[in-house]
Write a structure and sequence with these properties.
Length: 561
């Protein structure tokens, strides 16, 4: 089994990488921001680096010795290069250099900040580098700091030698005094055992005196020079910076990396579905169609040259060949939350698509809070079904109007049951009249499409799920969360329905801007009900590029409801 799936998995990896890269490009503003920050940093580095000059000096360190050519002496065992580097960077050296340069005490910190000291591996060399805005000043300060370090180390070594000489001299003086006293006593002693014992003590004292004097002589003979300068600093002829072109290039590369990293982090923590596969996994159903950008607002099925019309036909055919829909031919179209405009557009276009295949289609607007579909479509009145012609209508029952007919141009016609404002929406949706209305789809060749308010806003759709069990979810992946889609599926399944699939769409930027502009001037709040759009009925059909007049929905933004 692993051998069978191995090649398929290997073929999927490039596609997954391409998909991930496409998802990263959704956050172009993050990538662009990273590139901008990188270019600004590169420009700053190039401009500031153009005025900086670095002067360098080198010192070869050595340990104090009386014979520098002695093969037994190894300076690398005496010197700790890490400690020597820290000494060179110390404030004591900076204070000595400031005094040599004639600088004040307050400038020591500034002098110290421009110094860098490194030690090349496997060497006894200290590399001094001083950076300043003036090349001559950089060389002068580098030489001063180098000499200050040599003077400090020499003073430290001489201080150690002076302490040792003082200690040895302190040991020598008592022994020499004792030897002088013993010499005087020996002159007065007669020959014998007492004299022999005194001579033995004197021999020991003389040996001790000789040893101490030898150590003192060796210390005084030491060369206390801590090192030799093998390269003096000279004024540099070129700036130390990488240059503006190179800095901009490096900044751009770093900016691209930062932008991609930011886009990847944003992608990882983005709660919205990142692809059609994410939507399908959330609703546990297929994505039946992906509408072209900005096409979810018009009745376009009547146009054979329309890409959106072909997409709707494809969705209708996929539903027709789905056994779960073909058995009962009832479809409930809902959105997770927000506006109903996209779900209304999908419901109307699917109704036209089913009518185009010869089915007797009835579109039901189950929005009893702010109905507007009859005003947004050009419709004509039709006769009311026989079962609904009773005169004893209770207050608030729905439907109470005649069925309407919508002319979808070349796609044919389909019926429309418009929504009506009622006082008790749940009672109207669960009434016997509504049940008999939905039962019309049981006739041979009939199909019923119901559009209801968003599931997460109102429970109206859930009141219809047990009778219209096939549900189509319409969503914009940019504005809905995966958790919302999962919650919608759980509510639908818990109410006894079946999620047939999902239709995704993306509103154009212009439509979103228009919707935001209309939201402030068209939205009004009705007494006892939610905010609804103030819909203007269309009087002229929308004229398309092919010159034919067709019925169309007035494009309404996502914020109108």
């Amino acid at each position: 089994m692993s051998e069978a799936h191995g090649p398929a998995r290997a073929e999927d990896e490039p596609e997954q990488l391409r998909e991930q890269f496409r998802q990263l490009l959704r956050y172009r503003w993050l990538i662009g921001s990273g590139v901008g920050v990188g270019l600004l940093g590169g420009a700053w580095l190039g401009v500031t680096g153009a005025d900086s000059y670095a002067a360098t000096t080198d010192i070869v360190l050595r340990a104090p010795t009386s014979d520098p050519f002695a093969p037994t002496l190894s300076s690398d065992k005496v010197l700790n290069m890490g400690s020597e580097r820290q000494t060179a960077l110390s404030r004591k050296v900076a204070e000595g250099a400031a005094e040599r340069l004639g600088m004040g005490v307050g400038e020591v910190d500034r002098l110290q900040r421009g110094l860098q000291v490194t030690n090349p591996p496997q060497t006894l060399v200290l590399h001094f580098t001083y950076t300043a805005s003036d090349p001559k000043e950089a060389a002068r300060r580098a030489n001063a700091l180098t000499q200050a370090y040599i003077d400090l180390r020499k003073a430290q070594w001489e201080s150690v030698r002076g302490s040792m000489l003082k200690s040895l001299q302190g040991q020598l003086d008592p022994v020499a005094k004792q030897n002088d006293e013993l010499t005087k006593r020996l002159k007065a002693l007669p020959d014998g055992s007492a004299a022999d014992s005194a001579y033995a003590v004197q021999a020991n004292l003389l040996n001790r005196i000789t040893d101490l004097r030898s150590k003192i002589t060796s210390l005084k003979a030491l060369d206390m020079t801590p090192g030799n300068v093998i390269r003096n600093a000279t004024p540099p002829t070129a700036s130390d910076g990488p240059g503006l072109p190179l800095s901009l290039g490096l900044g751009g590369l770093v900016g691209v990396g930062l932008g991609l990293l930011g886009a990847w982090v944003r992608l990882v923590f983005d709660p919205a579905p990142r692809s059609a596969g994410d939507v399908a996994r959330a609703v546990r159903g297929p994505v039946l169609g992906v509408l072209p950008r900005g096409s979810a607002g018009a009745l376009v099925v009547g146009h054979t040259d329309s890409r959106a019309a072909e997409e709707y036909r494809s969705i209708a055919f996929r539903l027709a060949y789905d056994d779960r829909f073909a058995d009962r031919r009832r479809l409930l179209v809902v959105a997770p939350r927000g506006s109903m405009n996209s779900s209304i557009a999908v419901a109307v276009n699917l109704a036209a698509s089913f009518a185009e295949t010869g089915k007797n289609v009835l579109l039901v607007e189950a929005d009893l809070r702010g109905p507007s579909l009859s005003e947004r479509l050009e419709v004509t009145a039709a006769s009311r079904p026989r079962w609904s012609r009773t005169a004893d209508l209770s207050d608030g029952e729905w439907p109470s109007q005649d069925h309407l007919v919508v002319d979808a141009g070349g796609s044919g016609t389909f019926g429309l049951v418009p929504g009506e404002r009622v006082l008790n929406v749940p009672r109207a949706l669960t009434s016997a009249r509504t049940t008999r209305l939905i039962a019309e789809a049981e006739d041979p060749g009939a199909a019923l499409v119901v559009v209801a308010p968003p599931v997460l806003a109102y429970a109206d759709a859930l009141a219809l799920v047990d009778r219209v069990d096939g549900v189509l979810i319409v969503c914009d992946p940019r504005t809905v969360h995966r958790a919302d889609l999962v919650r919608v599926r759980e509510l639908i399944v818990g109410a006894g329905g079946t999620v047939l699939g999902a239709v995704t769409h993306t509103e154009s930027r212009r439509a979103e801007a228009g919707a935001a502009a209309r939201r402030g001037r068209r939205t009004r709040r009705t007494e006892g009900g939610p905010a609804v759009p103030e819909v203007r009925p269309r009087t002229d059909p929308e004229r398309h590029g092919d010159g034919s007049d067709t019925v169309a929905l007035r494009t309404v933004g996502s914020g109108d409801r």
